[in-house]
Amino acid sequence: MPSLISIAATASLLFAAQVYAHGYVQEVTLGSTKYTGYLPYSDPYYSTPPQRIIRKIPGNGPVEDVTSIDVQCNGWSAGGVVGSAPAPIYGTVAAGATVNFNWTEWPESHAGPMLTYMARAPSDITNAVWFKIDQSGKDSSGRWAAADKLVANKGIYSIKIPAKLKPGQYIIRHEILALHAAWTYPGVQVYPSCIQIEVTGSGTALPTSFVSFPGAYTPTTPGIVYDVYTNTGEYPLPGPAVWTGGN
Ligand SMILES: *[C@@H]1O[C@H](CO)[C@@H](O)[C@H](O)[C@H]1NC(C)=O
Ligand SMILES: [Cu+2]
User: Fold this and answer.
1) Which residues are in the Auxiliary Activity family 9 catalytic domain (predicted)?
2) For the CA of 102, the nearest atom of ligand 1
């Protein structure tokens, strides 16, 4: 283990994290291999930073401007933390395998959907290169992917890498949209996480339509603006349809 420069600074930041109580992906399991996520309250304090497959994030707080570059991979560009900066390594996973995202304790108040995109690398990920592989909003009994199901499942959300996806390097962009203040805009809280992977297998499928981040969501997109307290109707999941060609 690399040594911590400042235990005290880390401890006080961890305390702050609990006070604000939002969240991020702290661990990801690709098939059967577990990878620790980028831990914003301890990784920066190591003299030799641990190498992660998840791109750096500024903390456990949200991105609230859906038109900002920060919405891509979770950054705080005003504070000099560009979430889209490449991570040093990537994980390996077979097409068709399960990916488990392990979120830090998610606040019950933060209701909203969970959506997962991928982009094939290398590419300029500010272009329209993203396709959606999974989404989960509100079910017919009013239970949300986050927080209801996520909390019941001990912070784990699972997806599958499309089984016929062409092998190669990709970025997974997994996110929660917290809607507790989204009756107006700004209000939605975006919690994206970008994970670098190499997909193995013999598939040949690739999607043909793509969206960009920023771009896929606008301040007037249904589902970006949504009143969770009074709207008992179906939740309109924002972004494109899920690409099913890889299954
Ligand atoms: C999620 O990650 C944390 C931190 O590594 C770990 O303590 C916890 O057991 C993990 N949760 C599950 C359900 O594996
Ligand atoms: Cu919060």
Assistant:
1) 22-232
2) 1
